[in-house]
Design goal:
D-tyrosyl-trna(Tyr) Deacylase, Chain: A, two-stranded antiparallel sheet, 2 helices, 146 residues, alpha/beta, globular
């Protein structure tokens, strides 16, 4: 799995001009699933995200997790994270998991966050054309892969 994690002051996702998810301070995650990914990899990444210290403490050092600051998480599916651009100018997505497997692991990550935290968890819509808006905080952006 590959996750692009961005610390945000706010973020939202809309489908067909209707907002379906929105958060204030927290993490916006773009989640891509590889064809070889497993449930164990998803759980490892989800746990890492909940504990990752990317928020400032009172001294201005990144020592606090999203749970420590009682932030929120917006999880957006993003199969294009596994786009292969090496040959030609049009990316191919053969490494991305098919819709059945990808949606299962994406939904599994969302449920993991809900089961293992008290945070507000918002989502995009799997398979939909989405308009994602965010205000980076910092900016802090990490690419996590397992």
């Amino acid at each position: 799995m590959k996750v692009v994690l961005q610390r945000v002051s706010e973020a939202s996702v809309s489908v067909d001009d209707e907002q379906i998810g929105a958060i204030n301070q927290g993490l916006m995650l773009l989640v891509g699933v590889h064809e070889d990914d497993t449930e164990e990899q998803m759980q490892w990444l989800a746990e890492k995200i909940l504990k990752l210290r990317v928020f400032d403490d009172p001294e201005g050092k990144m020592n606090l997790s999203v749970q420590d600051v009682e932030g929120e998480i917006l999880v957006v599916p993003q199969f294009t994270l596994y786009g292969d651009y090496e040959q030609g100018n049009r990316p191919s997505y053969f490494a991305a998991a098919g819709p059945g497997k990808a949606n299962k692991l994406y939904e599994g990550m969302v449920q993991y966050f809900r089961d293992h935290s008290l945070l507000n968890i918002e989502t995009g819509e799997f398979g939909a054309y989405m308009d994602v808006q965010l205000h980076n905080d910092g900016p802090v952006t990490l690419v996590l892969e397992r």
